[in-house]
Amino acid sequence: xxxxxxxxxxxxxxxxxxxxxxxxxxxxxxxxxxxxxxxxxxxxxxxxxxxxxxxxxxxxxxxxxxxxxxxxxxxxxxxxxxxxxxxxxxxxxxxxxxxxxxxxxxxxxxxxxxxxxxxxxxxxxxxxxxxxxxxxxxxxxxxxxxxxxxxxxxxxxxxxxxxxxxxxxxxxxxxxxxxxxxxxxxxxxxxxxxxxxxxxxxxxxxxxxxxxxxxxxxxxxxxxxxxxxxxxxxxxxxxxxxxxxxxxxxxxxxxxxxxxxxxxxxxxxxxxxxxxxxxxxxxxxxxxxxxxxxxxxxxxxxxxxxxxxxxxxxxxxxxxxxxxxxxxxxxxxxxxxxxxxxxxxxxxxxxxxxxxxxxxxxxxxxxxxxxxxxxxxxxxxxxxxxxxxxxxxxxxxxxxxxxxxxxxxxxxxxxxxxxxxxxxxxxxxxx
Length: 431
What we know:
Blueprint: E1 2-8, E2 11-17, E3 22-25, H1 37-46, H2 54-57, E4 64-69, H3 77-90, E5 98-103, H4 112-119, H5 121-126, E6 128-131, E7 140-144, E8 151-154, H6 156-160, E9 163-169, E10 172-173, E11 177-178, H7 192-199, H8 216-228, E12 232-238, E13 244-250, H9 252-267, E14 268-271, E15 275-280, H10 291-301, E16 305-314, H11 324-332, H12 336-346, H13 351-361, E17 365-369, H14 374-380, E18 384-386, H15 389-400, E19 406-409, E20 416-419
Parallel strand pairs: 3-19, 4-5, 4-9, 5-6, 9-12, 14-20, 15-16, 15-19, 16-17, 17-18
Antiparallel strand pairs: 1-2, 7-8, 10-11, 12-13
């Protein structure tokens, strides 16, 4: 037997797998955080990719807008904003001429305490701050995209600024491929019509984690961001501990592309073949605090699972399902076709997880090991359940066969398996 320990809430859970069935563990190739975060951010600002330095772009008397992530993201904006303000000061700009915009997308406004956590007390004392309202009457129309024909409306303060700066973190994203870059315009500071029209394209086959080529959501976002004419971006890549690994600054697309390259090195993990059974943990607390947050582990595990196989999902979920729209879509909409219609008509954040879960269940069986009551897990979210990991493994082998091979993913939320291309046309597919 091979014992593999997986994070589960704030503890661990053990999967005991017969040696003959065990293919191995799939883990991210993370890099350590830098010793001095300020030095790394300043290095990026001094070595911009594809643009002049920020203090060469800004001028005395300019008005600047700096977009940062809202409270739904773990982005370490407090590392980025003070050095940006210092760069603007070097150009002769005054702090009173700078506005920090919390890019809330369709989310609620940021609270005063969240503002302090997100950007730091120093920033709040230096500059004005606002939360973007996607339903505001004064969003500014910039034009229409060619990719999806999206009518682009953005925040008025940003649209009218002389110097426009985007900040964010680059990581894997469900349907945009990666976070960061253009997402700081769409959805972060866009109007609700713009967001809904763009996000309806999640139904496209290429709107997937880690995919940019031919991804209409991504291409549309880039077009929208270009219409907003950002002057400069500062993006960071962190490891699973939230430590800053590297910062990237400069042009909207070039700096973001450099960030995605590092994300690929760290989090895309090549594997030789898929398995009939994949055991996945999102990575423990806080990644499995509820079912909604924990789902990303399943989405990544699908890439390592054969069609018709089994995913064992170890997620504690002490706070239940975690999102009301997620819950409502799973109870109200009975099949994938109904969900696709709903996505096209009225996309809502939260509903996309219901769509992805139901789509996953068409490909594989999912067994949940969790504290979530069986009533919700089975009746609402259509999952099989097991009280213990060994019970889940027994069920999985009964479904997939006693000879089924097994992958284990201890940090599923931050691991994207990529099946290596066959060496020759005669190599059999494991589909």
